[in-house]
Amino acid sequence: MKVVSLFSGAGGLDLGFKMAGHEIIWANDNFLDAVETYRKNLGDHIICEDIYKIDISQIPDCDIVIGGFPCQGFSIANMKRHADDSRNELYKMLIKVIVTKQPKFFVAENVKGILSLEHGEVIKMIMNDFNSIGYTSEYRVLNAANYGVPQLRNRVVIVGVRNDIDFKYQYPLPTHNANGDNGLKKWVSVREAMKDIPDPDQPNSLLNHTYSQFKLKFNGYLGNRTIDPDKPAPTVTARGDDKGGVVVLHHPNNRRRMTCRELATVQSFPLDYEFVGTRSSVYRQIGNAVPPLLGKAIAEQFNL
């Protein structure tokens, strides 16, 4: 299918759709470093601009619109979250593009915390909005670890099918589980995912293979948890702002923090996927991304 991508970030979801055989024909984000990362790895079809300033009529026609709309206002990691957070309005721009372009399908992604916001009223509002524009939509919570990503990352995936299209979307069945039983593979551990990554303190040629010197803490909070090398990593986060202060997971040796490359590996980006910007910017791009392997699992269901 021909795909239009909104809120593309560094391109995790788009890479997944590309891996599944689809063609991304237009993309948009307003974070310059992420856009440059996207261009370097996925192509020049991305526009760096505020979505509110985009002339929707200039967006090409497509089969599907995808978008991991910004989640900071919805996330339980944001202690000031509220239904009135202005960032929560960005999903309405996704709706506006869908209404104008009338794709056969759409895929929207967000954090699990969206389900409990305002005691469940926000997700009801969002689903009602999607269903009121001529699409039959539903959502599921998918754990990236169940699709080969070495990370316990639960995300809400909303899929809509235009009402005149004879197609029932089937959410991807897990390929992995915690124990590797019932005919499934065992979750990919951090140790296994990182087995071919060299020590960043020794000479090497890996891209983005530097790490934050911020001291380790072990208090159980985000970015301060002991990592079990034989399990998937906890959720990679993107907390922080343009002035730095991102929260980075410990390396599984629990003696330093992960490098940007290691964190990208935990997100299932390939080793040759190059990120642009300062280390804090790169950490943030990685934390905001949809794991490509999860994106691929979602996208492959449109190939049936």
Produce the secondary structure layout.
Elements: E1 2-6, H1 12-19, E2 23-29, H2 32-42, E3 46-48, E4 64-67, H3 90-101, E5 105-111, H4 121-131, E6 135-143, E7 154-162, E8 176-177, E9 185-186, H5 190-193, H6 260-266, H7 279-288, H8 292-300
Parallel strand pairs: 1-2, 1-4, 2-3, 4-5, 8-9
Antiparallel strand pairs: 5-7, 6-7
Helix pairs in contact: 1-8
Short description:
The protein has 304 residues and is α/β, with parallel strands linked by helices. The chain has a domain of 186 residues: Vaccinia Virus protein VP39 (Rossmann fold). The chain is built from eight helices and nine strands.
Overview of the structural elements:
With 304 residues, the protein is of the alpha/beta class. It has a domain at 2-176 and 290-300: Vaccinia Virus protein VP39 (Rossmann fold, 3-Layer(aba) Sandwich), CATH 3.40.50. The chain has eight helices and nine strands. Strand 4, helix 3 (90-101) and strand 5 (105-111) form a beta-alpha-beta unit. Helix 1 (12-19) packs across helix 8 (292-300). The termini are close together.
